[in-house]
Amino acid sequence: MRQIKVEKVTLNFGAGKDQAKLEKGLKLLRQISGMTPVKTITKKRIPAWGLRPGLPIGAKVTIRRNQNDLIKRLLHATDFRLKESNFDNNGNVSFGIKEYIDVEGAKYEPEIGIIGMEACVTLQRPGFRVKRRRLHQKSIHKRHKIGKEDAMKFMVETFSVKLGEE
User: Fold this and answer.
1) What is the CATH number of domain 5-163?
2) Which terminal Cβ of the chain has fewer Cβ within 10 Å, N or C?
3) Whether the Cβ atoms of residue 42 and residue 51 lie closer than 8 Å to each other
4) What is the pTM for the complete model shown?
5) Cα distance between residue 9 and residue 122, in whole Å
6) Domain residue ranges in the chain
7) pLDDT single digits (tens) 29-74
8) CA 68 to CA 61: how far, in whole Å?
9) 95: which strand partners?
């Protein structure tokens, strides 16, 4: 019950109010993940940024199967290096990719150009469903939760990640 595994990998891309950039981001996420991305829509009005409710400002895709191959390809873009600040206290690892052509197996597309994205890896232990199920939701004991040190140890052992500053 203490074994940690990858629950999901989420790739996201923020474009702001620029719809042409958003279309490029949708193509990028489709190329990297092989799945259809979903547009993210703003809920707040921020006049200084030109945002209004209902305006698509980004895209995301969640991968729940075959994550380990994708994680290795994404980590290849960072040379398998992560900082301690990439880990949070809830078992999540987030890192940015500045140029998608650094991802292993990605080819340059002239219509996309050079853009980046963010990847988030969510870790879990068996029994975490108790917290999310519809009926009889319960909290998870603090000993069963994944901490920052547990997540760092998992990434080092599973994906041969080097920790520290660049």
Assistant:
1) 3.30.1440.10
2) N
3) yes
4) 0.87
5) 6
6) 5-163
7) 999 988 999 999 999 998 888 888 999 999 999 999 888 899 999 9
8) 16
9) 119
